[in-house]
């Protein structure tokens, strides 16, 4: 892999894609190792993350947010209830609906995941100048936008950690 001012855009693009693939592989390996230790899968963590970011949700809203079927969400919620991460509670305004709500365990895990998220961000980007970091973030935002368009997919995992103010 080469990186120099004289590189042509095609070479830089291939190098950039290679680096993105490495980042994807490393982050996926980290999740594959860390989530099971918490008693979570990626799909369950995604659902829990949404609850942490947006507060209690109906299963229908969760299905829409995750881009999956209601049946799929029912299975995820069943597993999260069984393992103590969430509860199902009566919706205060709609007697037919049920709200999925994080438990104390779920809230604690969300806080731990958010702290790890922030710690990794500080480790990865803390040494970069604001100008370089801003350029990286802008470039990555462009890449994500292009991938959404090219692949016609919405990213189900929220990019920001829950902050507890939902």
From TrEMBL:
Pfam families according to UniProt: MarR
Question: Could you confirm whether the keyword DNA-binding appears in this record?
Answer: yes
Q: Which domain of life is it from?
A: Bacteria
Transmembrane intervals:
none
Q: Which residues form the HTH marR-type domain?
A: 13-149
| InterPro entries from the UniProt entry | HTH_MarR-typ, MarR/SlyA-like, Tscrpt_reg_MarR-type_CS, WH-like_DNA-bd_sf, WH_DNA-bd_sf
Q: Which PROSITE patterns match?
A: HTH_MARR_1, HTH_MARR_2
Q: Give UniProt keywords alphabetically.
A: DNA-binding, Transcription, Transcription regulation
| Protein's UniProt name | HTH marR-type domain-containing protein
What species is given as this protein's source? Answer: Nocardioides lentus
Upper taxonomic lineage: Bacteria, Bacillati, Actinomycetota, Actinomycetes, Propionibacteriales
